[in-house]
Amino acid sequence: MASSKAGSNRPLSPHLQIYRPMLSMMMSIVHRITGAALYVGSILLVIWLVAAASGPSAFETIQSIYGSILGQLVLFCYTWALIHHGLGGVRHLIWDTGRGFDHQSRERLIKGGLIGSIALTVLIWVVVYATHGATG
Amino acid sequence: MRTPLGQVRGLGAARSGTDHFWLQRLTAVSNLVLSTVFVGVLVSLAGDSHASVVATLSNPIVAILMLLFVISVVVHMRIGMQVIIEDYVHAELPKLLLLMGNTFFAIVVGLSAVFALLKISFGV
Ligand code: HEM
């Protein structure tokens, strides 16, 4: 690759250390981090489904772990990661069409994603507690 | 003589060109729809007994939507992680091993979830 002529005058990628951290840049990193977290967290879904497929006693065990304080905290974070990443995905799809790149739209899309994801996550958990009680 | 285009054609860090770019967008859209369904199903099942969870998950419509969700997510997350690996790991052997591990992980997650869903549907 290095030997090809086309390589010499290609644009260089931005150098992270000389960039002032910007909201859009932070959010791009957060999108990657939530994507990776969701990747790892997919194991939680598999464990839950396999337990359900194994029978009542395996399922009770998993339900009590997922229903513990720590379990609920992890699931709460997972919910937020999923929604934030999903809304971030919508932002990426809008940007893929070439739209929404001016300063105002950018800020609006990003703040909307952040506020929207927190609001939706809280809403979902309020519904869970309201309909199923605090034992999860 | 090899032109610069000839050198990159069909290659790219993972030898797969732009197919993945498109598949990532396609599954982003299907994830959006299916994960909304998924969250809805889980909210309605949170903390329920085994019998009631099995009853809901074995409803054909729910089961099919959950299966689609699993497939869509697994395809999406595999390509997504591949991009991350390609961005940060440049040495050939570690990259190859991680890409392999990524594929194995996606297959294990996908197959286990699909198997469990089918078993629940056809009778635990
Ligand atoms: C809820 C619906 C979802 C939408 C709309 C969505 C959308 C997207 C989009 C558009 C990208 C590409 C971003 C880019 O080009 O920089 C992406 C990347 C990614 N997604 Fe998703 N996604 C969703 C759910 C998920 C889930 C459930 C997982 C994992 C289980 C996941 C894992 C990833 C990973 C690992 C990446 C790569 C991140 C990166 O390259 O920075 N996504 N997602």
TrEMBL record, chain A:
UniProt: heme binding residues: H85
UniProt keyword terms in alphabetical order: Heme, Iron, Membrane, Metal-binding, Transmembrane, Transmembrane helix
SUPFAM superfamilies registered for this protein in UniProt: Fumarate reductase respiratory complex transmembrane subunits
Membrane topology: Multi-pass membrane protein
Subcellular location: Membrane
Main subcellular localisation: membrane
One BP annotation, GO: tricarboxylic acid cycle
Binding note for cofactor: The heme is bound between the two transmembrane subunits.
GO molecular function, one term: electron transfer activity
Listed PROSITE patterns: SDH_CYT_1 (PS01000), SDH_CYT_2 (PS01001)
Regions crossing the membrane: 29-53, 65-83, 109-130
Cofactor(s), by name: heme
Pfam families xrefs: Sdh_cyt
GO CC annotation, single: membrane
InterPro entries documented for this protein: SQR/QFR_C/D (IPR034804), Succ_DH_cyt_bsu_CS (IPR018495), Succ_DH_cytb556 (IPR014314), SuccDH_FuR_B_TM-su (IPR000701)
Quaternary assembly: Part of an enzyme complex containing four subunits: a flavoprotein, an iron-sulfur protein, plus two membrane-anchoring proteins, SdhC and SdhD. The complex can form homotrimers.
Chain's role: Membrane-anchoring subunit of succinate dehydrogenase (SDH).
Family: Belongs to the cytochrome b560 family.
Record's protein name: Succinate dehydrogenase cytochrome b556 subunit
Organism: Methylopila capsulata
From TrEMBL, chain B:
Compartments, record wording: Membrane
Mode of membrane association: Multi-pass membrane protein
UniProt entry tagged with the keyword Membrane: yes
Chief localization: membrane
InterPro entries named among the record's database cross-references: SQR/QFR_C/D (IPR034804), Succ_DH_anchor (IPR014312), SuccDH_FuR_B_TM-su (IPR000701)
Keywords: Electron transport, Heme, Iron, Membrane, Metal-binding, Transmembrane, Transmembrane helix, Transport, Tricarboxylic acid cycle
Assembly description: Part of an enzyme complex containing four subunits: a flavoprotein, an iron-sulfur protein, plus two membrane-anchoring proteins, SdhC and SdhD.
Function, as annotated: Membrane-anchoring subunit of succinate dehydrogenase (SDH).
Name the UniProt record assigns to this protein: Succinate dehydrogenase hydrophobic membrane anchor subunit
